[in-house]
């Protein structure tokens, strides 16, 4: 076969080799043109009142306790009180019969006014309170000095607050605070006294915290949260927490701000306090017209193409 005969055949092979690439390039270009934009929602910066808060742990306590003890050896007579019973100051709580009186049956002797000792000893509460612990039952034999019950003075109910020594500058006696109970109730309180010793191992200083107003019926050793204001309330610009993005080490923070209805750019920010799901934006200063992405913003590059989800107020 001559060279002239091979020329048309070679041209056909060249066209066949080039033509398959052309449809692939056209398909890639079409996919780029129809690639969907990120659907996002936006909000504007708002001004809120913020307060830097110190949050610490505390436990409920009855610092004033009275131990009721047997004043002699003998037997407890009925009725014997039960835990939770309220007692008045000077009220007889336990009645004790000496073992000599029981042996001689002095309680059955009558008619002789000179016989003034009946062998019955009454043990009263020195102050009003509630019986937290009752250790004995009616008929029990007790020794002189043995504990019978424990009386809590409810008027001295409060909380023991542990303050790290690094935070002592934020706590002072007379300072108002908020006490959050495990069931969610928030009660007003006040720092009452500072205890004159710090724990060597944990390096904490202990304070007592009292409730302002009536105290609920709470047992001892209930863990609560105490919030104290470190700063006075101030006004600051805030954004919802999802609007602020960060890197893995949380050393850089940024938001995505709309340039127009279809383009978002990355703006580095300096954050401050976080309260109730909103973060303070210290820098830069955004205008009330700036629109910040709050959803659909994760993973977007700088100068990203976006599509705003239509909402009523946007």
TrEMBL record:
Single GO MF descriptor: efflux transmembrane transporter activity
Domain of life: Bacteria
Region forming the signal peptide: 1-24
Annotated Gene Ontology cellular component terms: efflux pump complex
PROSITE patterns (UniProt xref): PROKAR_LIPOPROTEIN (PS51257)
Keywords: Signal
Listed name of the protein: Barrel-sandwich domain of CusB or HlyD membrane-fusion
């Amino acid at each position: 076969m001559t060279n002239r005969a091979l020329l048309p055949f070679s041209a056909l092979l060249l066209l066949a080799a080039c033509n398959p690439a052309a449809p692939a390039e056209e398909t890639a270009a079409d996919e780029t043109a129809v690639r969907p934009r990120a659907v996002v929602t936006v909000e504007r910066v708002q001004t809120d009142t913020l307060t830097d808060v110190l949050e610490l742990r505390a436990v409920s306590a009855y610092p004033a306790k009275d131990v009721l003890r047997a004043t002699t050896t003998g037997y407890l007579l009925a009725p014997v009180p039960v835990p939770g019973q309220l007692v008045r100051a000077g009220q007889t709580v336990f009645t004790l019969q000496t073992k000599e009186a029981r042996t001689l049956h002095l309680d059955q002797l009558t008619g002789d006014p000179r016989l003034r000792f009946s062998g019955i000893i009454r043990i009263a509460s020195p102050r009003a309170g509630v019986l937290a612990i009752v250790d004995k039952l009616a008929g029990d034999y007790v020794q002189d000095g043995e504990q019978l019950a424990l009386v809590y003075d409810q008027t001295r109910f409060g909380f023991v607050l542990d303050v790290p020594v690094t935070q002592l500058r934020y706590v002072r006696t007379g300072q108002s605070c908020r006490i959050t109970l495990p069931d969610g109730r928030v009660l007003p309180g006040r720092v009452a006294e500072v205890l004159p010793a710090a724990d060597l191992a944990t390096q904490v200083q202990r304070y007592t915290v009292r409730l302002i107003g009536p105290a609920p019926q709470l047992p001892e050793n209930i863990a609560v949260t105490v919030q104290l204001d470190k700063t006075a309330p101030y006004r600051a610009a805030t954004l919802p927490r999802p609007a602020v993005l960060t890197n893995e080490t949380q050393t850089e923070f940024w938001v995505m701000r709309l340039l127009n209805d279809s383009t978002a750019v990355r703006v580095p920010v300096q954050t401050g306090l976080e309260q109730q799901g909103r973060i303070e934006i210290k820098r830069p200063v955004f205008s009330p017209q700036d629109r910040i992405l709050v959803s659909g913003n994760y993973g977007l590059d700088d100068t990203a193409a976006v599509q705003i989800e239509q909402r009523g107020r946007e």
